[in-house]
Amino acid sequence: MTRVLVVEDDPQLVRALVINMQARHYGVDAAPDGATALRLAAARQPDVVVLDLGLPDMDGVEVIKALRGWTRVPVLVLSARRASEEKVAALDAGADDYITKPFSMDELLARLRAAVRRTEALPLAPERTVVTTDGFTVDLLAKKATRGGRDVRLTPTEWHLLEILVCSPGRLITQKQLLQEVWGPSYGSKTNYLRVYMAQLRRKLEADPAHPRYLITEPGMGYRFES
Question: 139 Cβ partners below 8 Å, 6+ apart?
């Protein structure tokens, strides 16, 4: 049974989440504050955490940072905070997804299922370092991409971006994370760099660069690779 930890201080919302999740055969624990959430996470070892940011004892971002000190459990933020900087702060702290209130229960459950699937997927083992899509193939060991049986010429920067994305399929990688990883700590706000290089990658790899199938933009937040 997949176990979910719901961290939310609104009793009515907690009740709705618990009822809907239990109806779909999830095991559910609920925590009304950050301290209880961290204690339950250690004791119950959930498969996924659904987390509100506005908790009575600490900010949800601090809960994410504390969790990331010892676990890679998927964290889905469920918050009324809509500002892009709030979303980016949560994602940079280590959240895997961000859903704003009010929300569709069906969408939340779909994202929860997706997070669990990604966790269950086998990590890239040394003998499984080739990522294959219907449009192109990425060989992480040989550091090359092919499309239609032909090598795609990528610059070192393009390759670095592509490598980060394909190594975390389905996961949103924030603009700040990408910029700092590829260009360095002082480039965290140079989002125009990303736009230019992502456009180049799409021209080289996507069948329809204007409507990408694999290299997806999450406006104001970051990018994800969908296999």
Answer: 129, 130, 145, 146
Cβ–Cβ < 8 Å for 173, 222: yes
Cα separation, 196 vs 200, whole angstroms: 6
Tell me if the pTM is above 0.85.
no
- The CA distance from 46 to 144, in Å, is 37
Q: Do residues 46 and 91 make contact, with C-beta atoms less than 8 angstroms apart? A: no
The Cα 81–Cα 101 span in angstroms is 8
Residue 183: Cβ within 10 Å count: 16
DSSP one-letter string for 192-226:
HHHHHHHHHHHHHH-SSTTS-SSEEEETTTEEEE-
Tokens, residue 35: 């301290």
Q: In what order do the strands lie in the sheet with 3-7?
A: 27-31, 3-7, 48-51, 75-79, 97-100
Name the nearest CA neighbour of 4 among 118, 70, 18, 15: 18
| Cα 207 from chain centroid (whole Å) | 25
Preceding omega of 102 cis (within 30 degrees of 0):
yes
Per-residue pLDDT of the chain (227 residues; tens, 9 = 90+): 899 999 999 999 999 999 999 999 999 999 999 999 999 998 888 999 999 999 999 999 999 988 887 888 899 999 888 888 888 888 888 888 899 888 899 999 998 988 887 766 545 444 458 899 999 999 988 888 999 989 999 888 888 899 889 988 888 888 888 888 888 777 777 888 899 999 999 999 999 999 999 999 988 888 999 98
